[in-house]
Amino acid sequence: MAEAHSERSLYIKVFWWLLVLTIVEIGVVFAPIAKLVINMALVILAVAKASLVAMYFMHLRFEHRALALVALTPLILGALLVFALLPDLTAATHQSTPTPPPAETSH
Fold this sequence. Notes:
The chain has 107 residues and is an all-alpha fold.
């Protein structure tokens, strides 16, 4: 019975951590910082939350290391792709001013 209570309290702790991370995410969205920093912070927080869910609610924490590495590989690749694309997604478009046509010379 004590083991079931211990396991339940572990899940409750994970729930509270997920709630705290969600509140931090909401705070980051409304923070007066650069959009690139906001996006990077949101990605890091999302990876942290996904890791908690995978480790505890999908029980990967209790599996062999090889299975955990197999599960982490797509996560790492996805995070690398997101970070590689962040500068393109947050870049401002360049507005160039039109150049006037060359003046006509009279002969």
